[in-house]
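Bug #77: duplicate submission created two jobs. Keeping one. Sequence:
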Amino acid sequence: MNPFVVDDAIIYTNGHVMAIAPFEPGHVAYGGDRINKNNMQKMIADARSRQYAPVPTVTMPLKVYCRVCSGIGKATTKNCSECNGDGEIEFDTDYNTYECECKTCAGNGTEIIVGGEVDCEECSGSGKVYDLATPVLIDGVAINPAYFELVNELPDVQYSASDTRDRMYFKSGAIFGIVMGIKV
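Kept job's structure:
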């Protein structure tokens, strides 16, 4: 999703992590017309009004081989050669025309080619990723380890768990944010 503006804040999100920054001239923002502005205003106010504390000591889980590139770190995608990127196969009989999900690409329209010279998008070329079955637990909130690692790299980051234990709030300078928890 592209960044969008709500009142005095610019919002960046991928649906799992949301960063709230002060809107300043020169920031590029798009639409946001599909969001619920009242809900977003409540989330911003909640993030800004919380009490934050330093990050507790966390033991990160071990990384596993990337399922996309099989641990090589190099992989590219191309349109599926069976369905030409449609995700479905169409065939005719004397009486009907049928469509079914392409078994080669499992209906997503792309094939993964392991190797080559392009870094794998899933693991950023490292060949290893965190196993989502092993989340990081912070104050009772289960967090995707990759998102925790990303947020934890921010300078002087502080955390605050939600009362419902379904999200973790973070603060770094004038930036506030939310990391959605995962079910264990």
